[in-house]
Amino acid sequence: MKAAYSLTAAVALGLGSSLAAADDAMLERAQLLFKPIPDSAEDVLADRNPMTPEKIELGEMLFFDPRLSASQTISCNTCHNVGMGGDDNIPTSIGHDWQRGPRNSPTIFNAVFNVAQFWDGRAEDLQEQAKGPIQAGVEMNNTPDNLERTLNSIETYVEMFNEAFPDDPNPVSFDNVASSLEVYQATLITPDAPFDLYLKGDKDALTEQQMAGLDAFMNKGCVACHNGVNVGGQGYYPFGVISRPGADILPDDDLGRAQVTETAADRYVFRSPSLRNVELTAPYFHSGNVWSLREAVAVMNDSQLGSLLSDQEVEDVTAFLRALTGKQPDVVYPVMPVRTDSTPLPDIPDYPRGAAAN
Amino acid sequence: MKAAYSLTAAVALGLGSSLAAADDAMLERAQLLFKPIPDSAEDVLADRNPMTPEKIELGEMLFFDPRLSASQTISCNTCHNVGMGGDDNIPTSIGHDWQRGPRNSPTIFNAVFNVAQFWDGRAEDLQEQAKGPIQAGVEMNNTPDNLERTLNSIETYVEMFNEAFPDDPNPVSFDNVASSLEVYQATLITPDAPFDLYLKGDKDALTEQQMAGLDAFMNKGCVACHNGVNVGGQGYYPFGVISRPGADILPDDDLGRAQVTETAADRYVFRSPSLRNVELTAPYFHSGNVWSLREAVAVMNDSQLGSLLSDQEVEDVTAFLRALTGKQPDVVYPVMPVRTDSTPLPDIPDYPRGAAAN
């Protein structure tokens, strides 16, 4: 029995009372609003940065190589853990010298399908995004020059760049580091979530409560900011449009998109996050201070929807969001090439050495 | 032509001048002094902590799970990187709150074959060893109680402990965390190095220079501390027995084994490290301040052998050591189970958040 949602749907969709018809109409509406995760992201990068096996192999090695950071201890995977939903599951990331980043680390899974990267969308794609953390003082704290010298000191890397960028007169470049990282990350997609199966026509892929949650999600406003292939990540919206949450959730000093556009109207505007695999990526929001998915839905209900969702609908939407967890990527840990005597040494503040251990 | 070493061997072994005979005698001597890495370490743990598929699967997940640390950001793999020779390739490890450890992180590869663990051998096996870094304030800074609460809050972990320790009335325990970590690490062995092929009878497995290096290694004293299956790791020896290296290499305040035995004779005594995969594990010595393998051999030559090795022999021994690099383990990155609302939160000092990033 699916009366709980289908009657609502029947009303919302202006259909007759037939539950079967409501089921069909709901699937059709969902198919208009969302798209399944495709089996490959090749089409997205085909024109700009084609996904070749050579770039994927190089990008994976770079993704896991801590020598991308000045201290040679922080890799992309440190804050975008491929075994933990593609992020680090802490409020804001810890970087060089144990500094804290200002915003919650976004998942890299399916990020290739987002309209832009970073919470404020200041990077238009993953290639541009990759250059940020490597250079950020609070993250990897490295420089393009030092990274290029590191990679050039390791023959295997030089060969891999030559193979990945055969037509480039200067293959071992910071640009090509970012290019191969983008291509590797484009392989980190999570198809076949229950919701994907539903969108492909399997009406039994979601539980009854998840169907009720989808119904509320589509008919009570969530879908306005969370739609498309990533169920979000496609546009920019003000956080707290109806009622501003507390400063712990929406810090006063983070103006979001306005820091990019320098437009007053963009104050506290952020790119809506993808909700793909959201149950794996707590804590939530750019401030990373909400640990419970149910609480996150409740915060959105109050701040964005004027509490349009009933308590039951908050539960139902939370259940629906758990249907967005897809097949996690299969990752073989790369064996990285060994340093040489000409490889730059790690830049680590020379603190006194503690006691115990090793 | 292998005259370079075989004449030396002929003399050292007191054999006739037949190069073939010298080749045979050298292989026989090597087979007496060393053993190839076996295909499995099952025999080592068979009586005490049998290697079951359930323990291996659980141990691998724990090995990569940063929630073993108080900050939930540091995993075993952070300092024992399976893609970089099983260590972190920095002088001394960086732990909780960016603290520095006192000694260089040893590789975990083939560690199951060592006589004991840690540079001073204070842990008799990998099960006991695993409990150290998890609790060390300068490393993971966690407590057994907090870790057990974390694991008990995640149903998948509870099920995996139940399956790995079916006869244990309290499967989710700190002891069993260590037990499964030991079993997983026992799978991280590196057979089939050129030297292993040589020990198995392939006289062409080593280059001529590596054969000359092996000859010097066996006949000029290196083998006294570096023998057996791990080419080291089997006993305790004074560092600087003939001439003490500088304090940058042998710090005055690290008494080594004497801190365990409280015996004056053990001052500056350390467990000889395994030389397996040594070309992958720079920087060298417990202080981790020597980056070049050739320099490390030269330091040993001066401090332990009274400069018995000629400059050419230092080069030859260095070449031989590169024949100790085996097949690196194939590791599939585990997908870790998601936290729940009852999982303890990460313990991270609340530093002000930096600018930029994400």
UniProtKB/TrEMBL annotation, chains A, B:
Residues 54-162, 208-325 form the Cytochrome c domain. Its cofactor is heme. Residues 1-22 form the signal peptide. Binds 2 heme groups. It comes from the Bacteria. PROSITE patterns: CYTC (PS51007). It is found in: Periplasm. InterPro entries: Cyt_c-like_dom, Cyt_c-like_dom_sf, Cytochrome_c_Peroxidase/MauG, Di-haem_cyt_c_peroxidsae, MauG/Cytc_peroxidase. Its main location: periplasm. SUPFAM superfamilies: Cytochrome c. Heme c 2 binds at C222, C225, H226, M300. GO terms for cellular component: periplasmic space. Keywords: Electron transport, Heme, Iron, Metal-binding, Oxidoreductase, Periplasm, Peroxidase, Signal, Transport. One of its GO terms (molecular function) is metal ion binding. Binds 2 heme groups per subunit. Heme c 1 binds at C76, C79, H80, H96. This is C-type cytochrome.
